[in-house]
Input
Amino acid sequence: MSSAKLTYNGKEYEYPVIVGTENEAGIDFTQLRAQTGAITFDPGYGNTGSCKSAVTFIDGDAGILRYRGYPIEQLASASRFSEVCYLLIYGKLPNATELNEWRRLLTQNSFIHESMINLFDHYPPTAHPMAILSAMVASLSTFHPDSNNEDQLDTTIVRLLAKAKTLAAFTYKKTRGEPIVYPIAANSYAANFLYMMFSTPAEPYVISPVIENALNMLLVLHADHEQNCSTSTVRMVGSSGANLYASISAGISGLWGPLHGGANQEVIEMLERIVADGCDYKKYITMAKDKNSNFRLMGFGHRVYKNFDPRAKLLKEACDQVLKEMGVKEPLLEVAKHLEEVALRDDFFIERRLYPNVDFYSGIIYRALGIPTNMFTVMFAIGRMPGWIAQWREMRAEFGNKIHRPRQIYIGEKERHYVPVEKRK
Ligand code: CMC
Output
């Protein structure tokens, strides 16, 4: 095993180097504070490995993404979301018997407690669906109080996965003031979601294979992405011993922000703004480069990918194919492609290695499927559910009862003494 040497306060220390299966190296500083009294300082955790994980591998320089060793390109073109859920959570592709049973469980557990449906009625019609989803996932723990029992874990996992799509579809129905629609057993995961979203009492939604496949692919592409903001949140909350529902509810809130999953909604709003502004691409590129403008090119850049995000590559191709198959003309696709072209020729983006990420093209497909813009991040959350669960499960197995608890460098006031209010200046 190799090691790294550190000289601090005139003394030399040696730390082991951990090497992963793909030769990624990390210096193991777990003994640093005990030996030196100092801590590592890495705001934003750009260089911090918070765990060992066997779930997902990313090589950001080469644009590689694999779930449990399987390349994302293969899974996106050939697998079903339900089997990817199984793969991520249990580490292997299910055989035919396992898959049938898994699918049966995912349908059987789709229903939510009838009392829970009342909860939806008390949100204002303007409520953002991510707020409702986060609250509803946390609320599941009140209907299933046994969720933190180790022997109930597999049941809790399947319940959460199965009910996530129902909660999302009911959120949509309730914000539209329409009656909810229950899932049907014969449907796939993606098809059931579409059915619950778009059926009305007057007309059941007829599922087209083109639309079902497009949604399946979107869910697969979002299924995991190792230690990002929301996943790290799920692990962090779970490390306190909080149940799976509570941990994932926190992850949903983490995902909501515009720098993370919320970017998919922002991309479409940005493209619409550019169109309304006469397609002045240069103006928006100039604004994105201006640090004082507070404007970023949404759907561009990534902490890990410094080459094309492979998911964006697949989605760009899928946009053309899905829109063609559906016979839909989407002017925003041309706007997005043109904006990408202008940005990729610009030195600012070239020097910083900023490329389109998963959120740049996904919204174009969601729109074509009829999903409203404020539901885009909810779609991301449903897709990410198996990844969060797999990472939470792995965290529990690896860390047991060790709580996640970073340290800090304090830069506030030194000790001072309390002054009663009447004596304060
Ligand atoms: N538009 C303009 N400038 C950018 C952008 C952008 N989208 N992204 C990064 N930069 C610049 C940034 O100003 C900085 O410049 P400088 O070095 O001169 O200060 C440099 O590039 C590095 O940026 P950073 O913010 O330090 O990079 P990060 O790794 O901390 O942030 C990011 C990654 C994704 C938050 C960021 O690229 C961003 O804000 N992108 C737009 C939001 C977005 O699309 N988010 C979705 C991410 S992918 C889905 C997911 O997994 O969440």
Notes: Residues 153-176 form the longest helix (24 residues). The longest strand covers residues 11-19. The mean pLDDT is 95. Residues 161 and 199 are 21 Å apart (CA to CA).
